[in-house]
Amino acid sequence: MPQRILIADDEETFRESTVEILAEAGYACSAARDAAEAESLLENGYDLLLADVRMPGNAHLEFLENVSRRHPELPVLVITGFPTVGTAIESFRLSIVDYLIKPVGVDDLKRAVERGLRRRTLARAVKEAMTETAKVAGIFDQLGQSMREFGRGEPQVEWSAHEYIAQAMRHIAQLSTVVGQTLEASRGSNPHAPTDLCALMPCPRLDRYEAAIQDAVEVMERTRSSFKSKEIGALRQRLETLLREGRRQR
Fold this sequence. Notes:
Rossmann fold, phosphorelay response regulator activity, two-component regulatory system, DNA-binding, 5-stranded parallel beta sheet, transcription regulation
């Protein structure tokens, strides 16, 4: 599906020519003549907003304020024929991706659009990665709790560890795909971008995730003489490897 761009500008010539240029570049474009029409169209979902500063409904950047509040992940390019230091500073306070001054060259416009869309792709990938990371952390929290019970002499939970790991591996496979998308999106805008996912997004549960794995490893080590299982031993080695690799990346 082509990426969707909304062009909001009260200047008809610029609005229509921009729609034509970006449509020829392969984007699905819609146009709005003022802030009210743009706000209505934004409810349909877009990948990028290109907005004029001086158009009806945005005299004091109130339209951009609303967009920042209601669509925080939507990248916005601001275009104006009347640049001022005040509007530039205020625009960047609202996390505007770029501030372009009319007349805008076709190549400059396309590059700015590409930057904005890469930011959108990266934001989506990071959000998906955070969701999958939270799922994996939750599974290992459960595993750590079960292994603590197992260590207190309740062998009936031994087999549950395998199910926890199976669940975790499924989410890790999904996370691997999402991480690949995240890094690809990041390198699209910066070929020297870091390859550590935690450098791209906050990892609020990373410490709990590592502690749960460490707990499981210690319980397995303490109880290995009581429950001599090759599968449990292999699982312990995999978790130890995961811990070592995670620590090397910090």
